[in-house]
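name: query_chain
kind: protein
chains: 1
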Amino acid sequence: MSLSFKSSKEVFDWLNRFVNLEAGQKPSSFRPERMELIAAVAGHPELCAPSFHVAGSKGKGSVTGMLSSILEAAGQRAAQYVSPHVADFRERISLTRAFLDEKVYIEAGNELRNLTNTLADTSKDEYRIFTGNAPDDAPPTYFELLTLYFFLCARIVRCDAMTVETGMGGRLDPTNIVDPLVSIITIIELEHTEFLGNTITEVAWAKAGIIKRGKPLILAEQCEEALAIFRKTAAEKNSPLLYFPDIAEIRDLTIRDGGTDFTLSFKTGGFFSEPLKLSVGIPGAVQALNAGLAVIALKTAYPFLDAETIRRGLSNFTLPARFERLGAGNPPVIIDGAHTEKSVELCVNTFTALYGEGGILIFGCAAGKNAEAMAAILTPRFSRIIITTPGTFKISDPKGVHEVFAKELQRQGRTAASAPELLFIPETAKAIDYVLEESRKKDLPVLGTGSFYLAAEIRARFNAD
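structure:
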């Protein structure tokens, strides 16, 4: 008999023994049928409740959280699956903003480990994928098992709905076993190119894999190349395409310290006859768009959803490390997990609109990110830039990133008098301590960005003071 887990931490420690893309490890294969098999053996927990499936490069975590928050305001118990976590593994698997009862994490963990042990020991040919005897018959990955773990937790708590964020891409993502009420695809850009492809068309093709036959697709505004892929895939699958620019628009946008106010108006019938005045508790123009996608998705799935429920749900929405202000004092310290060119641009635009130019930037990104593009966006906006290691969870090259930022300053032809002070402090804790001390001494706002893991380190260090 298998030993029983005694805590959720023990479950997550056990899961971390498996191949983990987030930590830079590469599986020998991506096998959608492997996920389908283990879900089938578990009794298809992914079908335990209606689901909403969210993919994209920017904003998918926010959209997932907004869906959950509105569903909660409607009296629904929404099991939520997002990644990465910032302070606690349980952020990945929750009921909207609340962690599950510890007994649920333990029960689901025991069920998952017993399942994998049973399949690993069986001699049946259809279960050979667990033996690891050949590259194509590799054991399940961390994210495959974590995804199944979420579905097991959701089934145990008897949730009313599930909001599910993809981990990477869509077509081959373990979450793609869901049969959602609607699929949502947010803004996309080049990311995970080693897995998804080196062009927007290839990335869009990977994301389009979540579109299900006959099920509506809610789509954020896209470039022409991506839009063509999404239109083609939706037509092939007879999936109604609800393209945000054709359906709605954001008006009267106001970004304030502590949130975003806007009006969501509709160009077509079937939603709301009057514009909705809405607020979310995260600053940023992109959050208004994310909210619009969530509203359209929920109104499509649940036509009788009322405006007041939507307002209440969005006003209660929060998400760690999405333009999160640490503490209530001044000068402000902001953390944001932005790690792509577009997301960094949106983040720094919001930061400077609220707090002005010339603050302090602490930056670190994982290997494989477009540091050159991010450096071009960030270097003109700050008076002091500190490059560091974005924690230890992911592979990174902080020295290389520092060199990228230095070359960008040279390319701009900045003189010593006009260029920001660029420092390289590879030890993450030392870099954070330096930034927080300088912020207080110089009365300058701080932005920490480039990685969710760096954001987590800054938050932990800030709270320890």
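note: The chain has two domains: 8-315, 324-464.
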